[in-house]
Amino acid sequence: MLRCDGVSKFFGRNAGASASRDLRRLSDAELREQGLVAAVRDASFEVARGETFVIMGLSGSGKSTLLRCLTRLIEPTYGNVVVDGADVTAADERELIEIRRRKMGMVFQHFALLPNRSVLGNVLFPMQVQGVDAKTANARALELLTLVGLQGLEHRRPSELSGGQQQRVGIARSLATDPPVWFLDEPFSALDPLIRMDLQAELLRLQATLAKTTVFVTHDLDEAIRLADRIAIMEHGRIVQIGSPEDLVLNPATAYVKRFVSKVPLSKVVSVGRLTKDGTPPANAMPLPAGSVIGDLAEDILGGPAVFAVTRADGKVLGVLEKSSALRILANLEENRS
């Protein structure tokens, strides 16, 4: 659904792409000498249909700049971006507007709601821009407000809502035109921790219902692990590793990534499938889904038998999980980080 190929972004005087001067060949020191900085360097990845792809890194790592290059809110210096078959980087102004209207939903840290419109009016706005007839648009807006838990608040103004409620309006508005790809840039970082956790749960619920292809930017590793199918970790403008939360924690590619994930409890990322062994479980063995994370099943594991049956989504038995292996993960023993 999304392909990013060699995207780079340089800032500074005379930072525009030039056939005679390829900035990608210059070191950071050489760039500084010319008054330039590399915000993003040679980012390449693909995002599958329905996948939640999280881009994360420390402040200044380039993650938000990369997302804005994907949507061309910032013009990439080099590289190509294709969203749902549309070449974003090759589009002219009119084509880019249509791509954003029909193929992209965007949610940012700042809610940017229209203060003179009601909750319903804010969600209606993108459909009115597209020329959707009033009856259809109104029904869609009400459906989305119910989906994000704001039914009954349709006629309130943004100033009458809490921060979490305002962000829910932003989420509903971004989904109004049913975009194929959803871009979220630190959407919860300005919120209190409890509200943030509630909205993370809301996002997971929406994903279970809508299965949107999602690119989500965050600096919060716990948030990334909770939401992501895969995570891209950035350092100084470069993507240094892409993988599932489990892959990143158990097989960090660099010392930077290892430090980044060193405090993550193994129980948060290690799946039942990772610990599965060949064998036939007892006939009455308790089944555990291979894709589930050990920590989510802690109560069942602690109170369960010595051996569990590991199953696929369709119920087929894949092998066995020994309780002792799961207990070691729940104890977060460091020898399992290999």
Concise overview:
The protein is of the alpha/beta class.
Explain how this protein is built.
The mean pLDDT is 92. The protein starts with a strand and ends in an 8-residue tail after the last helix. The protein folds into 2 domains: 202 residues, Rossmann fold, CATH 3.40.50; 70 residues, CBS-domain. Strands 6-7-8-3-9-10 form a 6-stranded mixed beta sheet, sandwiched between helices. Strands 2-1-4-5 form a 4-stranded antiparallel beta sheet. It is globular, with a radius of gyration of 23 Å. It is built from 12 helices and 13 strands. With 338 residues, the chain is of the alpha/beta class.
The total tally of domains equals: 2
Task: Estimate the mean pLDDT confidence.
Answer: 92
**What is the beta-strand fraction?**
15-25%
List the total number of helices. 12
Strand count, sense and barrel status of the largest sheet are: 6 strands, mixed
Question: N- to C-terminal separation?
Answer: 33 Å
Q: Any key phrases for this structure?
A:
338 residues; alpha/beta; Rossmann fold; CBS-domain; four-stranded antiparallel sheet; 12 helices; globular
List the helices and strands and how they pair.
Layout: E1 2-12, H1 28-33, E2 36-47, E3 52-57, H2 63-71, E4 78-83, E5 86-87, H3 93-103, E6 104-108, H4 119-130, H5 134-147, H6 163-174, E7 181-185, H7 193-210, E8 213-218, H8 221-227, E9 230-235, E10 238-243, H9 245-250, H10 255-261, E11 287-289, H11 298-302, E12 307-311, E13 317-322, H12 323-330
Parallel strand pairs: 3-8, 3-9, 6-7, 7-8, 11-12
Antiparallel strand pairs: 1-2, 1-4, 4-5, 9-10, 12-13
